[in-house]
Design a protein that fits this description.
- The strands form 4 sheets. Strands 3-2-1-4-10 form a 5-stranded mixed β-sheet. Strands 6-5-7-8-9 form a 5-stranded parallel β-sheet, sandwiched between helices.
- The chain is built from 17 helices and 17 strands.
- It has 3 domains: about 80 residues, Nucleotidyltransferase, domain 5 (2-Layer Sandwich); about 140 residues, Rossmann fold, CATH 3.40.50.280; about 200 residues, Nucleotidyltransferase, domain 5, CATH 3.30.420.
- The longest helix is centred in the C-terminal third of the chain and has 22 residues.
- The protein has about 450 residues and is α/β, with parallel strands linked by helices.
Length: about 450
């Protein structure tokens, strides 16, 4: 059997493989296969092969060919980045937003000139990509330039992206030639070109390009690259691509993905004019936050430790000892009703906590003329749609009501939606797949998403 496209989503706990046909006419998901991600075996390729075998079984075929093979990955820690800027609330924060929106996990952020301690951390715990920012255009030059030279002197053989003051471009090119790192260094537009202006999209594109080019250097991913014919990007970056595509078609939205290791929240909205007038610092239109402590399997203990076990036992109608036993035997994919109900409780905590960390809030700014109401953080008041994606929110029961309850009990406390929102569930669990398909065929990606959401 031959299909148009295979898309592998290699997650922290589960690997999904989707087969698609008729992308140019009537795009359809024809089957899905899955298997646990085999990071523990130091070879995620094993899990991928097993997921493809599961896909073949679901298609009832022994041979499977494809015209294209795409992949997204958040396995083995996903895309790990370090970010280095001049001032945290300006260039460093802008660079961080660009990196998170591209699907990375930020393992280190520094401001100012890198210290010996900062450099030692880069050597002992190297990221996959280093992002160097600093200075508005034609403003302060020395910090970003010094940081670039210090990093190059470490000879780490790690890709570096420069997205700082464009007045440094010639000096950066000189350093690139001096250290013979033309294949490792990318230079792009300033992520913070002027005060209160964010320019994150060019940096995000470079991050994806760099990830694709250097993915073979990431632990456990070398063999995946051998299979992929065209694109491979971080899974959260693919979800963001899908979210941006949907925003242009549907309207302002927030997408929530509760995973086994992390919970991601993606919002695509400029917010309301009313809030923008009192906003303390600018926010990107497309924003992602990742909560590395909130997952339903790898990081389930972080959630479990914050639950009221008496309430959990009452809700599940079992003893506290049985609740503890449930947790001690937790599975990546729950199999019976009790396990699913328990996973839903974990999912509710992860969803609410992540959403409240993502969204902004009102602040009182005290001036000589008295207190002034201001806003800080991401404004979601104009959101029309909440999209549920990822294994937990698409496969567990009643997650639409869970989201509505979370928004209602927090309404008017933060910059959450003020109007009734429409809940869309990614029933086919293809948002990441559609996001990467959008890089080769955005029209097909949009049709697949609308079908998955049951939107005509």
């Amino acid at each position: 059997m031959k299909v148009d496209v295979l898309v592998a989503e290699i997650g922290s706990t589960t690997t999904i493989v989707n087969a698609f046909n008729n992308l140019d006419t009537n795009p359809q998901l024809i089957a899905q296969g899955q298997y646990r991600t085999t990071v523990d075996l130091d070879d995620v390729n094993i899990g991928l092969d097993k997921a493809i075998e599961n896909l073949k079984n679901n298609l009832n075929v022994t041979e499977l060919e494809y015209n294209d093979f795409l992949a997204t990955s958040s396995a083995a820690g996903g895309l790990k980045m370090s970010v280095h800027g001049l001032v945290y609330e300006m260039t460093a924060k802008a660079a961080k937003e660009a990196a998170l929106g591209a699907g990375s996990n930020i393992q280190n952020i520094t401001v100012g000139i890198l210290s010996d301690f900062d450099l030692e951390k880069l050597q002992t715990n190297p990221p996959n990509i280093i992002l160097i920012a600093g200075g508005v255009d034609y403003g302060e030059k020395q910090t970003a330039l010094t940081n670039m030279q210090k990093v190059l002197e470490l000879n780490l053989n790690i890709p570096i992206i420069y997205c700082g003051n464009i007045a440094n471009h010639d000096d950066i090119k000189y350093l690139v030639n001096k250290y013979h790192v033309q294949d490792l260094v990318s230079i792009t537009e300033n992520v913070y070109p002027s005060i209160d202006v964010l320019n994150v999209e060019p940096v995000r594109k470079i991050i994806h390009d760099t990830f694709e080019k250097h993915i073979t250097k990431a632990k456990g991913m070398a063999k995946i690259k051998e299979k992929v014919k065209t694109h491979i990007i971080p899974t959260p970056g693919a979800v963001m691509e899908a979210a941006k595509l949907l925003k242009d078609n549907l309207g302002d939205l927030v997408a929530i993905d509760v995973g086994g290791a992390t919970t991601d929240v993606h919002s695509v909205t400029s917010g309301s004019e009313e809030i923008s007038r009192i906003l303390i610092n600018p926010e990107p239109e497309a924003k992602r936050t990742v909560e590395g402590d909130l997952g339903l399997y790898v990081n389930a203990k972080n959630i479990f430790d914050n639950l009221d076990l008496n309430k959990v036992s009452q809700k599940l109608n079992i003893s506290i000892d049985e609740v503890n036993e449930l947790f001690n035997n937790i599975k990546p994919i729950p199999t019976n009703d009790l396990e699913k109900k328990f996973a839903l409780i974990l999912c509710e905590y992860a969803t609410e906590t992540s959403l409240l960390r993502h969204v902004g809030d009102y602040k009182n700014l005290y001036t000589i003329s008295g207190a002034k109401k201001m806003a800080e953080g991401k404004d979601l008041t104009n959101i029309d749609y909440v999209i549920l994606t990822g294994g937990a929110l698409t496969r567990l029961p009643n997650t639409e009501n869970l989201i509505k309850d979370i928004i209602m009990r927090n309404k008017n406390k933060k910059l959450l939606p003020i109007n009734n929102v429409t809940i869309l569930k990614d029933n086919d669990y293809i948002m990441a797949s559609a996001g990467i398909i959008s890089k080769i065929n955005p029209e097909a990606a949009l049709k697949l998403l609308r079908r998955s959401f049951n939107v005509s």
